[in-house]
Amino acid sequence: MANDDIAIGIDLGTSYSCVALMENGAPTVIPNEWGERVHASVVSFLEDGTVLVGNSAKRNIITNAECTVYSAKRLIGRFYFSDEVKKAQAVMPYKIVEGPNNGVRVQVRDAIYSVPEISALVLKEMKAIVESYLGREVTKAVVTVPAYFNDNQRQATKDAGKIAGLDVIRIINEPTAASLAFGFGKNTQQRIAVFDLGGGTFDISILDIGKDVFQVLSTAGDTYLGGDDFDDRIMTWLAERFLGKTGIDLRLNKYCLQMLKEAAERGKIDVGHDGTASINVEGICQDPNGCVMNLADTLSDAEFNQLTMDLVQRTFKVCDEALQSARLTVADLDAVILVGGPTRLPVIRQGVKHYFGKEPMVGIDPDEVVAMGAAIQAAALLEQKSDQILIDVTPLSLRVGTVGGYTEKMLDKNTPVPIERSKTFTTNRDGQEKVKIRVYQGESNQASECALLGEFEFSGFRIAYRGEVQIEVTFEIDANGIVHVSATDQETGQKASMTINLSSGLSDTDIAESARKNADVSLARGAA
Amino acid sequence: MPGVDPVFDIETQALAGVLDQLDYFQILKLEQTASPAEIKAAYFRESRTYHPDRFFALPDGDLKRAVGRIYRRINEAWVCLRDDEKREKYLADINGQDRDRKLRYTESSEEELKRDRDALLGTTPQGRAMFQAGLLDLDAGRYAQAAQNFRMARMYEPQNVYFQEKLEEATRLASGKK
């Protein structure tokens, strides 16, 4: 049988990834050969040229720090000059360097990798997990992204899929996927909020879910807010106290910093679980005399809540925005769903309960629900009689650059997709051969505060006096949330040819080359 | 499977062909007097028929392209008609002389709407200021003062019907209070 009759759902997370498949009509998370259902999104490049991905790679963050890449999702689809990349450079033990067109690259030993190439290795592992489970090849996948991801980030995620040898049949928003899994087989009519706090991003989506139609009413998010930020707060707290006691700043050494990070993450989980965490790291550093020092501290519930209260409050600001966009209040909602590991924290659960005025739904696994939803969507797309339809929205307004660094809005945020909008541009010089437009996403009329998607250069239209040539440019946002731009000469109806400049993305040749390299990589099967 | 029905195939491609001659009410198969609930129901009904995901498994071709075009227009129609203000402006546009050019709600419609809204609130700085003061008085229940301010505003912009309307309202309330 051809292998195109099956498609998997992959939740490609900042910290952890998960893969699911429709089996006997139900979404099922596929474990790896050691029974692990979620896998650290960590890629460790070993000396012998093999690559370790997942929870065993995570253990190498300390021992093989410079050659172990994690949280790549924080970098995907970003420009080298962005704040997020600068921040990552300061804390990541691996080397982040500048690539062509202001792109971001990761250097491991002598090899340079694009961010999609790193994510592709995680996807390759997810693909391998299903393939070893099924004993056959799979080539199609639905991959999830934060709802608030812009076009650059979506495109880069799709590229990662291609590099991993996957046909990404759809990019779907994580909260939307969660709602599909929540509503699956329920046959209800409900208005819900999906509160999705992941390792590196936060999304809130408001949806109407019905028997056959799932309609996203609005979405809002913050791609700079996640569980990692909670770890950071604990790290700073621990480091400051250690500094006060010993006079040594652990943050000055990247090796100590990694131990600290690991301790902070464990501390966060423990304090959430037990109400208090004893944090002990033996041999975290040496004092100036060469004596080995240990870190020992206790983090209480109250202290943790105080350290992170502003982060929790930030999520509710974003919730306000989503409700306002949908012209609703919390009283209009029937249920709240929590997604993402950090939503296990009592500080989040209590905050959510307080904000929405109701208990969040129980019985949903916050780590697995997104992958399950992706699997449902994957099966629905392949099925030829699917009765379920999903109407999602674009999270960001689409804009074109005008003179003086300003932008003009073409499509509003929260507009249902797929959608298109056209605008007519004219030449402003006699004999002009090219028309250039810059396309942005964001909520500011200042170009500098929006994300640049690229500069589109149109040519091949008639050469005439200024103002005589009218070029109709059509902006389309597809069901993946990916933007397409095309142009026609209005009088002749002829399509103008187009080149894209100033884009951080990879070219088709880059992708093909990367795919070849990815196929050659053998994934090490590290022991659990 | 929807695609194997040859009648659906022909009808869909025909619809895609005449899309640019239809207004949003025709796209959603609605009367121009449709209520918000009817508009939403129509949007869902048409989504069930034309949502591209339902045709995803079909091979790429004319039918899929036609469905894509139709569905993008359905979304466009919904975005316009679900908004009371936009719907009102659009209705005036498609029932006016420029119908053929105004079948699609574009950024210039948006600008016109903004201009109209601005015009209502005053086009001269003095008129605008007086009118705003009048609105505050009206809210605070100072009806006589409001009437006075609206009268002043109207002196700067005698053509503004909205100013006139508010003046009448304030005058009526002021006399009622006495």
Structure, described:
The complex is a heterodimer of chains A (528) and B (178). By secondary structure, chain A is an alpha+beta fold. Chain A is built from 12 helices and 27 strands. Chain A has helices at residues 55-58, 60-63, 83-91, 115-134, 151-163, 174-183, 227-246, 254-274, 301-325, 346-356, 369-382, 508-520; strands at residues 7-12, 16-23, 26-29, 39-40, 42-45, 51-53, 68-70, 95-98, 104-108, 111-114, 140-145, 167-173, 190-197, 202-209, 213-222, 276-286, 292-300, 335-339, 389-391, 398-401, 407-411, 419-426, 435-441, 451-459, 470-477, 483-489, 497-501. In chain A, strands 1, 2, 3, 4, 11 and 12 form a 6-stranded mixed β-sheet that branches. Chain A has a 5-stranded mixed β-sheet with strand order 18-13-14-15-19, sandwiched between helices. The model of chain A has no long low-confidence stretch (mean pLDDT 92). Chain B is mainly alpha-helical and 178 residues long. Chain B folds into 2 domains: 2-104, Helix Hairpins (Orthogonal Bundle); 121-177. In chain B, 70% of the residues lie in helices and 0% in strands. Chain B has helices at 6-18, 24-27, 36-50, 62-81, 84-94, 107-120, 125-140, 143-156, 161-177.
Mean pLDDT of chain A: 92
Number of helices, counting only DSSP H or I runs of 4 residues or more of chain A: 12
Order of helices and strands of chain B: HHHHHHHHH
Helix content of chain A: 25-40%
Mean pLDDT of chain B equals 89
Largest interface: A-B, 29 and 21 residues
CATH topology of the largest domain in chain B: Helix Hairpins
* Sheet having the most strands of chain B: none
Q: Under CATH, the topology of the largest domain in chain A is which?
A: Nucleotidyltransferase, domain 5
Please tell me what the overall shape of chain B is: elongated
Quickly give the CATH architecture of the largest domain in chain B: Orthogonal Bundle
Radius of gyration of chain A from CA coordinates: 24 Å
Full CATH superfamily name of the largest domain in chain A = ATPase, nucleotide binding domain
CATH class bucket of the largest domain in chain A: Alpha Beta
Using the CA coordinates, give the radius of gyration of chain B.
24 Å
Q: What would you call the structural class of chain B?
A: mainly alpha
Largest sheet of chain A: 6 strands, mixed
| Strand segment tally of chain B | 0
